[in-house]
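Chapter summary example.
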Amino acid sequence: MKRALPLLLLVCTTVFADDAKLTKSIETDIRTLAAPNMEGRGLGTKGIGLAANYIEGRLRALGLQPAFGKSYRQPFPVKMGVSLGSGNKLEGVADGDWTPLGFSSAGPFSGPLAFAGYGIDATPIGYNDFDGIDVKGKVVLMLRYEPQEKDDNSKFDGRRPSRWSAMRYKVLQARERGAVAVIFTTGPIQDEGKDKVPPLVNDGPESPAGIPVIQVKTSVAQRWLKDAGIDLAQFQKDVDADLKPRSRVLAASVSGVADVKPQFDNGENIAAILPGRGSLANEVIVLGAHYDHLGYGGEGSMKPNVHAIHPGADDNASGDAGVMNAAELLRDSLTGIPDRRTILFALFSGEERGLAGSGYFVAHSPVPISSIKAMVNLDMVGALREDKITAFGTDSAPQWKALVDTAGAGSNLKITETGDGYGPSDQTSFYAAKVPVLHFFTGAHERYHTPEDIADAVNFAGEARIVRLIANVMTPLARGAVTPVYARASSAPAMEGDSRGYGAYLGSVPDYSAMDATTGGVLLSDVRPGSPADKAGIRGKDRIVSIGGTRIENLYDMSYALQDHKPGDTVDIIVVRGGDRLTLRATLTTRGGGAPMAPVPVAPTPSPRPPPGGKLTPSPVVPTPSPRPPRAGLQPSPVVPPPSPRPPGPGPVSPPAGTPTPSNGFTIGAGKPFEKTYDGEKHLKDIRQLTFGGENAEAYFTPDGTKIIYQATVPGAGCDQEYTMDLATGATKLVSNGKGRTTCGYYRYPQGDRIIYATTEGGGADCPPKPDMSKGYVWPVYSSFDIVEANVDGSKAKKITTASGYDAEMTWCHKGGKMVFTSMRDGDLELYEMDEASGKVKRLTYAPGYDGGAFYNGDCTEIVWRANHPVGPALDEYRGLLAKELVKPLLMELFLMNADGTNQRQITHNGAANFCPYFMNDGKRIIFASNVNAHGFDFDLWTIQKDGQGLERITTAPGFDGFCVFSPDGQYLIWASSRAKPDSYEMNLFIAKWVD
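The structure predicted for these 996 residues follows.
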């Protein structure tokens, strides 16, 4: 029987060197490796060779054996950049007036010249340079950057480059539309008369773009465009003024050759072995760190325009010193132990180039990978503050947390344990090979990847405490007291993963050792269990070559393809496996998506329009913070896709006058105060945010006003389900059964003892397919939608509609006894009233077109609803879409009628998308959502009198505001809004006191 772990640690700690000696040794190592003569340990410098010599000398002096036969060194190739070949040519343009770009594919190109403006497809904010222009077979000329720079009111970012300005993304858009090449130029506004082309620089280890990509001087582009009657400077001013694309195909043709060759340098891993003994000698544990850094800066630097030595004292001379000093402690403490595992101390190069060194090490391991029982990585362990250190990767084996807890006992270190084994550091290479891993890290800081990461800033004494912790972790591993068992953790990645935290989440893990492949596609090392990739049948060693119809040439393409979809989208993914092309289908989620269980659901049903675009720095679900800033060159700019359409839910239902208000001192404790205010929102006071992350919509009160029911898509669920929330405590509960898609949940009035909602589960337990958005924004009206009634906890659900076709959007009369809903049972989308007792149904509307989202006034004598009654060709289009179970909701007006269907009249005439109408408690006004005074897809709340007069704007926050409902006592307004993150597609629920 193995000895108790605490006893082993006690034995270990009794033989440590004294603190002063250990601290001094660590300081000497870091100061040596971060000294100026080491030149920032940049690949290709003399300094990194000096660093390698120093590390080898230290390992040799410790009496450790060389790991690679008779050598401590393992050479490997590293992609360092690109260079111009001899065949570059652009017809009619002098050599100095143009250049291929670093991510260009090599090869000839020829075709008509198409000017695509800025080359931006920003459909979510209503801007697309590719509208009305066919670029198939053409050479596409486009401007760098984006419109309305330095404009705080821009629909783009205005002050910072938005995700749509990324050059690789622009090329992807042109390439997927059939372009044969892309030519960039800098517009006169940004060029400022310099008329220069950028130098040829490396674009990271990833594959080329798939087509030739070059840049010409501004004067060259001006000459081409002038011949077509286009003044480029005026073009930029005009687009800045009105954001209207002006793309066109020119009469000219362009041909040339891009000849770009990748350049490689030699890197060296350094490793040494403390041999094992006895029965455990053939088992190995690895303690590693990377020793390369950024040299003089440039790519990857947080100060890319500063040419200066980046010493890398914390990143990662601190890790190297940790490995070397832990090696000495372990050598001494394990002396005389008859049965112990071999310890391999590895110092990797090329980590800053896509984990090149550790990837090569794993692929060409000096010991069988199957013999490696664990890998512990030290990356940035020299900045201990407030005694805090993070152990990432503890989900990679069930034994890790207990081991780390015991190892840290008595150290006074505050250890956070979290995350699987993936991230932008060397443990990833081992975890992809199914080795349990840990990564110790003391936190990011402002010195990261700058010339200020110097030795004087390192906490040497703090690192000495960490080295002791590492020795306490390694000792029981070496003695066989603990054997970590590899686990494919399903938790959210602790550090940046395949989608870099942006857009939709697939859960695939790229093989970083294959990042410089030129054959196209993204080779995977693994997929996270329970992720969309795993559920779709994607596996490690698959090569992804297409996502949702987008060809994948490299990691950038894959990131952009994911960013162009939202959580909940189902896409076809083509992989190459063993020479065969397989088409698999995955339903994407948010990062961290898993089983449908969360106290506050995230990523629910999208709003009835694509929300405004903007940057997303975290994923829609708040992730575990990255242990270090992401690697430059592995982080494309994010792209926020529009949400998939949702079924047109009902407008909220007005409570009857005189409904009892909550008693017993009830107060709203759910959520937290929302501090930001906006001019003009005089009717809203004490705003509270109730949900956090994703999109949450359609919240309706219980008759006593203490709870709400709303719809949401929990990560991993794929589509909407119904939830309730206690407004006093914030407690939430799933009340639908998780099958199909649901919408339009509502409480029975006046008792509040039942709920109704619509569900597609009768058509199957899976989420119904997403609609085809290729010809514009549409809502699906699934024929499988039926309305069910259930207890408030979701139990004993039973179907109350049985007619064929769409049945949804039902709301109860607040006096009880009847309900109004939308149905296609007679071939069109019309309003119907159902008697609660008998189930008899009466049709209320007859005009061709869509009628829906209806609710009663307080005494159930009137109904307000939204409608689109097209005529002529528009009616033909409507019927054609309806035959496909689709509705285009871009034009909706509000209508009013008596509850029996008489006296129908239109109350808005603004030609906008008006929806979510709701009687205010005075019974004289209606509050609703509209984009009547907005650009693109921005919506605000408005009020209007029943006669169509007295229009007043209620919300002014940027983004979306809609789905507005008053509490039964009229004191509170609840609604859905993107105001928490107006530049994202997050939609949350908010509640505020109403001030009339």
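To summarize the output: The mean pLDDT is 83.
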